[in-house]
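Recap from last week: sequence in, structure out.
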Amino acid sequence: MQSPFIIDAHLDLAMNALEWNRNLREPVNNIREREKGQTDKPDRAKGMVSLPELRKGRVGLVVATQIARYVAPNSTLPGWHSPEQAWAQTQGQLAWYKAMEAQEEMIQIRNLDGLEVHLDYWENETIPDQQKKIGYILSLEGADSLVDLSYLHKAYAYGLRALGPAHYGPGRYAPGTGMEGPLTRMGKDLLREMDHLRMILDVTHLTDVGFDQALQLFKGPVWASHHNTRTLVHHQRQLADHQIKALIEREAVIGGVLDAWMLANHWERGVSDPKRENITLEKLINHYDHICQLAGNSLHIAIGSDLDGMFGQEQAPYDMDTIADLQGLAPLLHKRGYSQEDIENIFYRNWLRFLRKAWA
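Predicted structure tokens:
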């Protein structure tokens, strides 16, 4: 029997291609081999994502990011010294996605018609999976690179369909992970303009205050592309139960994330080890279980893996080698009592239902 189709709602593909200098057209093992001996980043030779591995795992549709942060002169975070430089970086990332389209590796999905055509294409068993294009929906993670609101319209014109105002630290539009405080004035204006364009709001990385403001101000479709639960892992980066309930009320979907520090308490970057901490795919299912208990169903959980989002095997479940091993969730979910319908909800149907409604 054919493995289930998968939609992954958060992958930093262009960042890996440009900033990590990875040729994602190559098999993961080839990328690892080329990076042996490199020490500039902790995940060198430990990457888990490439286009062939996505096809191997039947991850046929992804939400793929642009990402570039503006940093103030006294910031310790990596980033760009002006919004204009950050914008230019996102345009380089866009150019990589377009190059992948030109090579018939990927195809951008902008609307409902394109979505339905792509799904039919992946269901066509006369085309081998390893020859199929990976569909991508373009999302902006952190809005710093939008010099002003006119740039939102430029981005929408080239296919940007989802946006998360915040990332880590301070932000021009919203403070993010590790911070406190409300949306900025620009952030409030951004949400109103996104509403006008019928874009998807990604609440990932918002502060608690920013989360509440965003849900109040924004009237359109909302998702949490890559989030786990604060009840199980105690950090502001995670969703508290009242936030999960608010998202359920908005018919949102929450993408479970596979970064080990969001699967275990007391994780120390560069020190903790996935095997010693027993970080497996079962840990993610614990978070799914918690959300399902709050919702009373499996309609609000899905996959937003964030694999190779500035980490690799050193900070991912040790029962995974590459992103293709997302298929390993199916037997684990079945063992935990999830039905085939539940599994399909998690793998693709929840994201699909969300997109069909958002783009109707």
